[in-house]
Amino acid sequence: MATVSAVVIARDEADFIEGCLTSVAWADERLVVLDSATTDDTAVLAERASARVVERPWVSFQHQRNTALGLARCDWVLFVDGDERVPPSLAREVRERLRDSGDVRGFWIPRRNVIAGVWVRHAGWWPDPQLRLLHRASARYDESGKVHEVAELDGPAGALSEPLLHLNYETFAEFRAKQARYAVLEARTLWEKGVRAKPRNLVVQPIREFRRRTVELQGVRHGVFGLRLGMEMAIASFLTYRELLRLGRRGASVE
Fold first, then answer.
1. Separation CA 94–CA 111 (nearest Å)
2. By Cβ atoms counted within 10 A, which residue in 47, 122, 128, 169 is the most buried?
3. What pLDDT, on a 0 to 100 scale, did the predictor assign at position 147?
4. 3-state secondary structure the chain
5. CA distance 37 to 180
6. For each successive 10 residues of the chain (255 residues), what is the average pLDDT?
7. Which whole-number Å values give the CA distances from 50 to 125, 164, 226, 248, in the listed order?
8. What's phi and psi for 183, nearest 5 deg?
């Protein structure tokens, strides 16, 4: 029978790590790859939950995941973020599909995002598929990117139907703070891909993002909440292009 390592890439996850690890207690191994910059009790709580904790300095999301693939001891790796939970129905589906996975080297898993207590079914937040269940020896992450990492497989991918539960943000203030951090990483990724910003992007791109989230991806179906969510994503777009413009002004010193 195929074995599964449930792996958490963690930094300052003391508020979430116990619930996360409890949801993957069925796995053959629980591994926490801890960012060495962590300042809270994540490691203590993870070890108390019988997880193996390995501390590594932070380089990037992709690097941490590649490190985890090398550290895991099982045939398959299920990546779970600290603020995610694996419901029993998903755990059962994982076990069932791995009994006869054939030549499939990874599985996409839908993700149910909860923001400020609302399951977001529109605005691009559902089904939000994540390539998280990977055959350990068949997957690798491209480390040239900075955020929104997706594994590269040496074979085909399948899809599961049961979702991960993602407890994204309790408040919009938390949402905005995290999107601001992502914006810097996203700008760096765009810069390294050769994308350059112009001042008009600070207006045009947020408007496009608001329209995309609210109209094209039907965020308006959530009413005022959906409009607020669209506005927050527009602000994130503004921050990304502001940072990209800043990188352009620094010019050669960045490259």
1. 14
2. 169
3. 67
4. CCCEEEEEEECCCCCCHHHHHHHCCCCCEEEEEEECCCCCCHHHHHHHCCCEEEEECCCCHHHHHHHHHHHCCCCEEEECCCCEECCHHHHHHHHHHHCCCCCCCEEEECEEEEECCEECCCCCCCCCCEEEEEEHHHEEECCCCCCCCCEEECCCEEECCCCEEEEEECCHHHHHHHHHHHHHHHHHHHHHCCCCCCCCHHHHHHHHHHHHHHHHCCHHHHCHHHHHHHHHHHHHHHHHHHHHHHHHHHHHHCC
5. 19
6. 96 97 98 97 97 95 96 98 97 97 98 96 97 98 80 98 96 92 91 94 98 98 97 97 94 50
7. 33, 22, 40, 47
8. -60, -40
Going from N- to C-terminal start, the domains of the chain cover: 4-168, 171-253
Assigned token pair, 67? 């490190």
Contact 85, 19 (CB under 8 A): yes
CATH topology of domain 4-168: Spore Coat Polysaccharide Biosynthesis Protein SpsA; Chain A (3.90.550)
So what's the pLDDT on residue 250? 84
Backbone angles phi, psi at 159, to 5 degrees: -140, 140
